[in-house]
Design goal:
heterodimer, A: about 170 residues, alpha/beta, Aconitase, domain 4, seven-stranded mixed beta sheet, about 30% helix, B: about 425 residues, Aconitase, domain 3, 2 domains, five-stranded parallel beta sheet, 13 helices, binds iron/sulfur cluster
């Protein structure tokens, strides 16, 4: 992820958005991100997949991605063109899955209160801040070192490739 | 910070250290990896893409349990792919359709105390009831663990739960864990290790402990651990596992000065989680009389022999309400066989229940009893999110198998203690 700056319109969602809401169970035989993307967040509101065509950043409340370990949830968001999720907090497995798949996930306490659905948002990774539509900047929590390593390797699969090539166990 | 948790002790050993600190990141040796027919395909994609061999296929456990038997062509094709994969990579621990829910089979003599086990499923936390470190991971991480035999973990901060007293009749592990969820909330234990202790442990059967560890993830816990005691040892012996107690002393119960949460089991009542969160918990009396269309007894949370036994006790000689469909899905082949031998299945059938093959069944809305629009479900499973069991318009209540059975009889949510002899 060499992206230093991400820009897009936001979709605002609430607290405790669970993985059944992100991808309902009936779509779990699908693994193609594009196909899954057609149903992204459908469980929350069937109108969302259509909206995601113009929105590439999700701004959420607390505990985004709680529930099952289905990586389909991350794939669906990526498939729908989502570049980043900014939340008050994330559920653990979703957070790890996102990192491993290269979906940017940022914890920014207080962001949701200041951002309105449809707003433009800039994520400045270099400076560690969100630039809101008003021009106001808001810091997000720094990304942990071990997480950054995976992101820098280009996701866990890339890291894995390197390790297997070095014959490392 | 002084580390006082079994979780930290297991992670220290698995990463070759004397001790580890909370918050420290360790690379731990993983003893076993579990994948199944929903999360597994993504892991297989990665393994296939890398054209990598699996160094230790004996540590991999593969289950076809979510679509079992397959209800659709797409699921059948996934199953075909798994069968070929298992043959190609010589995966001996391959559990095809009908063997049962992954988590139940994994605790029937597979997982051992002190092990590090990861599964591509959030309810992998279940195995912590056997004093193992067990947690759910994504498919990519499962592939990583399958190919390298290791994975990184941040040592979680413990959240000590002290149990006191003993369980009243018709109150069981489900009511305990629902009570805990009610207190902690849906993210009250996010990233943390639930560590159970206290004199109340003695009141909890292994079945109760599996249920509690299983649903610990519903408050965000990374894992849950029960220390090893006589109840654990007796259970393992049933499966021919004879733990060497001196080498396992680090897994024994221990005292903590100030537990984060103390629960008096004597005071517990049957509990119910209302739509649409497992943490939206109330005593059964608050929702008694809510009309139900479907009652489900099954899943990795409550599809064990003990669960069928208590349901049979309540249903014996009675008939399920004409307005209710009661679906019973034993969690494993072993559970079903034992329930059949002991006459429980006949009691359930005579009462009007539908008994399905072992597996996940209706729990996640894939097959074998999918909820329709506006239907009300009372379920012994672990999640009642919108759309979890089928229609997003259905309403799901979670409760113990005793409460589900009593509710099926009455046609509305009912306190099982009304059926106390
Ligand atoms: S029974 Fe339900 S919760 Fe358990 S593994 Fe199957 S789908 Fe998941």
């Amino acid at each position: 992820m060499s992206l230093r700056r991400i820009e897009g319109r936001v979709l605002v969602v609430g607290d405790n958005v669970d993985t059944d809401a992100i991808v309902p169970g009936r779509y779990l035989t699908i693994t193609d991100p594009k196909e899954l993307g057609k149903h992204a967040l459908e469980g929350l509101d069937p109108a969302i997949p259509g909206k995601l065509k113009e929105r590439s950043i999700i701004v959420a409340g607390r505990n985004f991605g709680c529930g099952s370990s289905r990586e389909h949830a991350v794939l669906a968001l990526l498939g729908a063109g989502v570049k980043a999720v900014v939340a008050e907090s994330f559920a653990r497995i979703f957070y790890r899955n996102a990192i491993n798949r290269g979906l940017l996930v940022l914890e920014a306490p207080g962001a949701r209160q200041k951002i309105t659905d449809g707003d433009k948002l800039v994520i400045d990774l270099e400076r560690g801040v969100l630039v809101l539509a008003s021009g106001e900047t808001l810091p997000f929590k720094p990304i942990a070192r071990e997480v950054l390593e995976i992101v820098e390797a280009g996701g866990l699969v890339e890291k894995l490739k390197k390790e297997l090539h070095h014959g490392g166990r | 910070m002084a580390v006082n948790s079994i979780t930290a002790r297991i992670l220290a050993r698995a990463s070759g250290k004397d001790r580890v600190e909370v918050g420290e990141t360790v690379v731990a040796k993983v003893d076993k990896v579990m994948i199944h027919d929903v999360t597994g395909p993504i892991a297989l994609d990665i393994i296939d893409d890398l054209k990598a061999g699996i160094p230790s296929p004996e540590n991999l456990y593969v289950f076809l349990d979510h679509y079992s038997p397959s209800p659709s062509i797409s699921a059948s094709n996934i199953h075909r792919r798994f069968r070929i994969f298992a043959k190609t990579h010589k995966v001996a621990n391959f559990f095809d359709v009908g063997e049962g829910v992954c988590h139940q089979v994994m605790v029937e003599g597979v997982v051992r105390p002190g092990e590090v086990v990861v599964g591509a499923d959030s309810h992998t936390t279940t195995y912590g009831a056997l004093a193992a470190f067990a947690t759910g991971v994504g498919s990519t991480e499962a592939a990583y663990a399958i190919l390298t035999g290791k994975l990184w973990f941040k040592v979680p901060e413990p959240l000590h739960v002290r149990l006191e007293g003993t369980l009243p009749s018709y109150v069981n592990g489900k009511d305990v864990v629902l009570s805990i969820l009610g207190v902690l909330g849906q993210e009250g234990a996010n990233y943390r290790a639930l560590e159970f202790g206290g004199p109340g442990l003695r009141a909890l059967s292994m079945s109760d402990r599996f249920t509690i560890a299983n649903m610990s993830v519903e408050c965000g816990a990374k894992n849950a651990v029960f220390p090893i005691d006589d109840i654990t040892v007796n259970y393992l012996e049933e499966f021919g596992i004879l733990p060497n107690s001196s080498s396992l002393s680090y897994l024994k119960p221990y005292e903590v000065e100030s537990p984060h949460l103390t629960l008096n089991l004597d005071a517990l009542e049957p509990m119910v989680a209302k739509p649409h969160s497992p943490a939206n918990v109330v005593p059964v009396s608050d929702v008694e009389g809510v009309r139900v269309d479907t009652a489900f007894i099954g899943s990795c949370t409550n599809g064990r022999y003990e669960d069928l036994l208590i349901a049979a006790k309540i249903l014996k000689g009675r008939r399920v309400s004409k307005d209710v469909r009661l679906v019973v899905t034993p969690a494993s082949r072993r559970v079903l066989v034992r329930a059949l031998q002991d006459g429980l299945i006949k009691i359930l059938l005579d009462a009007g229940a539908v008994v399905t093959p072992p597996g996940c069944g209706a729990c996640f809305g894939g097959h074998l009893g999918v909820a329709g629009d506006d239907e009300v479900v009372i379920s012994s499973s672990n999640r009642n999110f919108v759309g979890r069991m089928g229609s997003p318009k259905a309403r799901i209540y979670l409760a113990s198998p005793a409460t589900v059975a009593a509710s099926a009889l009455e046609g509305c949510i009912t306190d099982p203690r009304h059926y106390l002899e």
